[in-house]
């Protein structure tokens, strides 16, 4: 989706987004990876332009794998399909807070951290809880305010995957 070219506070008219031919499409559900209500945060989300390349032992029938040797597979998965896949993993995905990458080193000043990384996190380390499916997080967490919109989008993508 592309915003209308006219600028409004530097962002364009976010109510005028239209489907664009270059939008990343989810290879699993077939819907756009562009998520969000009209706002500056609206845009493509998920696993975008992911690539897998088969190796020598990958070739089905001649090796041990399932993808062909020297073949690049490129795909997109929207956040809803990622969550759907995560629910099916035998080994749960790990979660953390990427802002922990910007913690100051011991004895490092804020100025030194900014010089080293460009940005710093001055608050303490933040541990994320173990992964839970999005549906469970939306149901359990009272602070999540757009629950009905989430359920509608989830159901639309489930239907597109043929998973109702």
Give me the oligomer status. Answer: single chain
- Shape designation: extended
Question: Uncertain spans, ≥5 residues at pLDDT below 50?
Answer: 1-17
Give me the strand/helix succession: EEEEEEHHHH
Beta-strand content: 15-25%
The tally of helices reads 4
Structural class of the secondary elements? alpha+beta
Q: What Rg do the Cα atoms give?
A: 20 Å
Q: Let me know the average pLDDT.
A: 79
What is the number of E strands?
6
Largest sheet: 2 strands, antiparallel
Compile the SSE list and pairings.
Blueprint lengths: L1 E3 L8 E6 L15 E2 L7 E2 L2 E7 L18 E6 L1 H10 L21 H8 L16 H7 L6 H15 L3
Antiparallel strand pairs: 1-2, 3-4, 5-6
Q: How would you describe what is shown here?
A:
By secondary structure, the protein is of the alpha+beta class. The chain has a domain at 2-91. It is 24% helix and 16% strand. The chain has helices at 79-88, 110-117, 134-140, 147-161, and strands at 2-4, 13-18, 34-35, 43-44, 47-53, 72-77. Strands 1-2 form a two-stranded antiparallel ribbon. Strands 3-4 form a two-stranded antiparallel ribbon. The protein has a two-stranded antiparallel sheet with strand order 5-6. The longest helix is centred in the C-terminal third of the chain and has 15 residues, at 147-161. The radius of gyration is 20 Å and the shape is extended. The chain starts with a strand and ends with a helix.
């Amino acid at each position: 989706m592309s915003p209308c070219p006219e600028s409004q506070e530097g962002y364009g008219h976010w109510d005028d987004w239209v489907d664009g031919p270059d939008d990343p499409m989810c290879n699993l559900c077939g819907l756009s990876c562009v998520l969000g209500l009209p706002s500056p945060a609206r845009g493509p989300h998920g696993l975008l332009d992911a690539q897998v390349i088969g190796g020598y032992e990958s070739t089905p029938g001649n090796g041990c794998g399932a993808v062909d040797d020297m073949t690049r597979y490129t795909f997109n998965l929207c956040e809803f399909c990622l969550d759907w896949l995560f629910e099916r993993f035998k080994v749960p995905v790990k979660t953390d807070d990427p802002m922990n990458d910007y913690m100051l080193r011991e004895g490092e000043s804020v100025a030194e951290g900014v010089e080293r990384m460009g940005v710093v996190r001055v608050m303490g380390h933040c541990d994320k809880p173990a992964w839970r499916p999005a549906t469970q997080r939306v149901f359990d967490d009272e602070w999540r305010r757009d629950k009905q919109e989430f359920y509608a989008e989830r159901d639309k993508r489930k239907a597109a995957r043929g998973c109702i």
